[in-house]
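Table 4 source record.
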Amino acid sequence: MRITFRNDLATPPDLGNSFGPVCVGIGTPSNMHFHGLSVSPQGSSDNVFVHVQPGEQFEYEVRIPAAGRQGPGSFWYHPHAHGSVNGQILGGMSGALIIDGSEELLSILADMPERFLLLKHAKFADGRELVSINGQLNPLVEMTPGEMQFWRLANIGASNFYKIGIAGMPLYVVATDGHMLSRPRKTTELFLGPGERIDAIAIGPSAGIYQLKTIPFRNEAWRSEEPSIQLAVVSSTGPARGVTSVEEVVLEQRIRDSRWIDQVRGAPIAQRRTLRYSRTSDRKVFLINDQVTDEARTDQTVRLGDTEEWTILNMDQQYHSFHIHQTPFLVTHVGGTAWPDDSLRDTFSVPPATSEGPGMIKVVIPFTDPVIRGRFVYHCHAVDHEDKGMMGVIEVRD
């Protein structure tokens, strides 16, 4: 994948008529990150330490192996120049990146229409906020009863956490963050933190109108639940095809090939580490292990070939998330309870602290793919928190 990237962010943000700032101030640096790809973090590849200054140009060359750990799935791209990420993503700078071939793993997908539902939010200067799907407000999604569609849902916005659902219309999850489940999982609700993706089969319900909405939940302890927002309208029209029988066909699907998750689950743990998320009382500085990020400092050094267990503790009374570049991970515990996940992730939401103690997740991370050798980062993907310091640097060495 060869990309010529030119930074023309040399004008002040227009807060009068636009949904959000075009950049953070005059003449801000920028770059690209290819979120979720197991590719090299060095040189002109997925190297977030490259900062392209205004008026400059950079030639990216990202080699996606035909064999190895990088498989088909839903990924995305966005700027990652630390300190400027939040404003640039709010300004619209993100998009989906698909590695084709999911139908080779789950053949039922082969003949389905493919539909993208990419969530972004934008903020006005007066504090108002809009949530869009594919840049549209409350778009129409058309189906026929019993029709199967392959939906790729992704939160490619800056910092919002969403719980979403369609009353009367379940979805059948087949992949998370570009990694296939062993079998479709039926669900009526999805939780999508910033950066998270879910691929699912949608079955057209009985004829009627159905609303895709956010489901209220408390993200920050000091604020009330945010009201439900209607995101899209699903219109199901035409003759019925037997929704129940179609569901039976979907749920009997299986992936027979071996999956990376099975190797990760059975790998010996070489080392255990703990990350502690916290912030200052004025919410201007966000920290990992009591430090703000310094791109010149290496916070964790890992041996190539090792598999490690990391515990992320959230001392804050709001949701954060954990994202690491170059490699996925297996979530094993959430809030002290075992989490029986059936697929790998590259981003996962960390629940808030409560009166009973910090929020917590445990993840098992394979540092086994030779292509990821080098320096890269891990951070909270609510990128306003990342910009304010909640990021660390890791180096994978021989």
